[in-house]
Design a protein that fits this description.
Layout lengths: L1 H34 L4 E4 L4 E9 L2 E3 L2 E5 L3 E8 L5 E3 L11 E4 L2 E5 L2 E7 L4 E7 L4 E7 L6 E8 L1
Parallel strand pairs: 2-5, 4-12
Antiparallel strand pairs: 1-2, 2-3, 5-10, 6-9, 7-10, 8-9, 11-12
The structure holds copper (II) ion (CU).
Copper (II) ion (CU) binds next to loops.
Length: 155
């Protein structure tokens, strides 16, 4: 009687274990895909480091970006929100040649690149090479938007 009464319990545990195994397995399968848009990649063809930043729910993701001095970088900004955002890199791109593509609206002043406005579901791509090591804040300067991040440029 004991053996019979134990069977459903052990089956239950087995199902539970299998269930966790499946969830764990899916997690492993899904996470690289989920992580991909946020991670850095290196294009062997152009030798440009491509860094993708998503804008979601008034946040930059990731909000800390690491670059190296002198490395050709393509910063891809994707606005996944339903509203307009701006990317303002403060001092990072002062006196630096910046090539802009995508469907954003870039603005320049006497110092060079100032900011790019990115429409909802739009993207902007900034290609440049950071000149000096340092920690550079960036933000969105639209009214009421408290959105910022940091670009860390290392030697
Ligand atoms: Cu914004």
């Amino acid at each position: 009687m004991r053996r019979i009464s134990r069977t459903p319990l052990s089956k239950g545990i087995l199902t539970l274990v299998l269930g966790w195994g499946l969830v764990g397995g899916l997690g492993v399968l899904i996470s690289p895909l989920e992580a991909a848009p946020h991670s850095n990649s290196h294009s062997a063809v152009e030798n440009v480091r491509v860094v993708t930043v998503h804008i979601e729910n008034r946040r930059f993701l990731p909000h800390v970006i690491h670059l190296r001095v002198g490395e050709q970088t393509r910063l891809v900004l994707k606005n996944d929100d339903v509203e307009l955002h701006a990317f303002v890199p403060a001092d990072l791109l002062a006196q630096t040649h910046v090539q802009v593509s995508g469907n954003g609206a870039p603005q320049f002043n006497g110092q060079g690149f100032q900011r790019v406005l990115i429409p909802s579901q739009g993207h902007a791509e900034l290609t440049f090479s950071a000149k000096h090591a340092g920690s550079y804040p960036f933000f969105c300067d639209l009214p009421g938007h408290v959105m910022n991040g940091t670009i860390v440029v290392e030697d």
